[in-house]
Please model this.
Amino acid sequence: MGKPPTDFIKSAINLISRSKLSVFGGIVISILSPVLFISILIDIQGVVQNPYFGFLIYLVLGPLFLIGLIFVLAGIFLSRGKENIGLFTFEYIEEQLSRPGRYSRIRRHILLTVSITIATVFIVGMVATTGFQYTETNEFCGLFCHQVMEPAYSSYQNSPHSRVSCVECHIGKSSEWLTKAKFSGAKQLLAVVLDSYPRPIIPPIQTLRPERQTCEECHRPEMFHGDKLHIKDRFLPDEKNTHVQTALLMKIGSGGYQGRKAQGIHWHVSEQHQVFYRHLDNAQEDITEVWLKNGGEKTHFNKTPDNIDSSKSTPGSGEVRQMDCMDCHNRPTHVFRSADEALDEKIMTGAIPRDIPYIKRQALEVITQHYDSVENARLGISKGITMWYKNSYPALFKRGTTPLDTAIKGIQQAYMENVFPEMNVQWGTYKDFIGHKNNTGCFRCHGGLHTSADGQMISNDCDSCHIILAENEPASSVLNLLKRLNK
Ligand code: HEC
Ligand code: HEC
Ligand code: HEC
Ligand code: HEC
Ligand code: HEC
Model:
């Protein structure tokens, strides 16, 4: 007793030292094992938050370690030492077994092989699973290619879905999805390395578009019911930055459930019928045909020919899709506001003090200038505001931090949350399809341009979607109106 472990190590070293390949692999492994072990421990404890740390461990050190291991094993297999041992060949084993004195030696070899195999399986398994898990984290998705993903990541952080992980939405549950995602991911990594990715990044309609089932794990439109009061706060560009409100009663409706009929806005996603559409462009803005399938019945709506750009459209061109949540909720988490809305939100929350005269108007003026970098935007905003108020309202400049300093910070924030000049994301680059600004969104089909052969038109009636209770009216009067309705 006591002898075997040292014996074991000796014979391991002996075996490895027979081939240069194994020696090289052995050196790589011995250097990396303690580093890898400690790094993984640190990572599990969550001490280091830097996204590159995970990348280094799981996608650089891990694979290097595996390569070292492969070298060691390959070296042992290929080595033709003095005794010309074909280690795992039957002849060798037979020969060894036939000589009684050699018996203990072959036992050592078997022990060695078994333990190396177990260690390999264990380590390979661990590096592979942790590495895989790492590519599923928000840090990897959102921060690793920092500049590329910044618009998607920042907008995500300011949305109601900031606790839903990227992969939960972008990668479906089936293994087919997973392969699709990893292939597409590998292609994207290559595009980042080659610096050939599009700026801005195009919405992932073909590859990584969320599945409807994903949304339905948390939201079930068939269970929705009734209307929803939606109040929008705005500030006018006048001296007082007058607070006005628009109040809409949204006909949220329902997808229909257990005998209840589908109705209202979520009628589109009912099980009882399907809506299909043909779009000519990748942005899905130019919809030329719509089909409604209702049991055996099929209604076909065509866009009036005068409104189709014939240079782009030949019969049957474009792509057909079934309508799902994302055709309206294309911005559930990557929410990019218009300049107007972004400033209204900051004024509403107090990040821009609303008692500074004309602050909405002046902020809108500086924030909509074109800047070629975030740094220049910050400078431009600060300079523009300071200069105008120095001339027009010098009394606002006192010692210490003034409300104007707070306002400048708020305006810069509004810019940085929505505009990413390095990625060519400007105001309005990504369109939200939930309403009908500039004839997109719902009006891609409900704009009064799509009719069937028997003269039906996809409804354009304002009241089918919402009842407008007030539009840009002083906030106090909207409150009174609601109180009256409540009586
Ligand atoms: C709640 C679901 C959801 C989550 C969570 C989510 N996304 Fe998205 N993402 C979407 C949808 C929907 C689109 C637009 C799809 C379309 O228009 O076809 C999109 C689009 C994108 C795009 C294309 C650019 C754009 O804005 O259209 C990128 C890049 C992206 N997501 C990255 C991410 C990253 C990185 C994360 C995590 C930090 C993330 N997403 C989390 C739903 C989600
Ligand atoms: C893991 C759960 C989860 C998933 C998956 C999810 N959501 Fe949500 N969603 C939430 C939560 C939580 C909220 C916030 C509810 C609130 O604030 O009242 C929310 C809010 C919303 C809202 C209301 C937003 C607002 O500003 O009021 C919409 C619309 C929405 N989600 C659509 C979607 C769509 C479309 C998908 C699929 C791409 C999706 N969600 C996937 C959990 C989820
Ligand atoms: C025809 C367009 C359309 C489709 C398709 C659609 N929605 Fe909506 N959804 C809307 C509109 C419009 C609203 C109201 C938004 C508002 O008031 O700002 C809404 C509201 C919601 C809300 C918030 C409800 C509330 O009471 O606050 C959730 C959650 C939601 N939708 C989830 C989904 C999911 C999940 C799907 C897919 C199964 C889906 N929607 C399909 C247009 C649509
Ligand atoms: C791809 C085309 C398409 C888009 C985009 C679309 N709809 Fe529709 N919608 C239809 C069709 C087709 C019908 C059925 C014909 C009709 O009722 O006019 C319909 C019907 C409706 C109805 C009546 C449902 C009922 O009870 O009969 C409402 C409400 C509605 N849509 C709201 C919206 C809203 C809100 C949006 C935008 C967020 C929207 N739709 C976007 C195609 C579309
Ligand atoms: C197919 C459904 C649909 C039809 C038809 C429709 N709207 Fe809308 N409308 C919407 C949705 C969805 C919103 C967005 C609510 C939101 O932003 O959350 C909206 C928003 C609005 C707003 C508020 C805009 C804002 O941001 O202040 C006004 C005003 C409005 N609609 C007026 C009209 C008028 C007037 C008509 C008739 C010509 C009409 N709408 C027809 C679906 C519709």
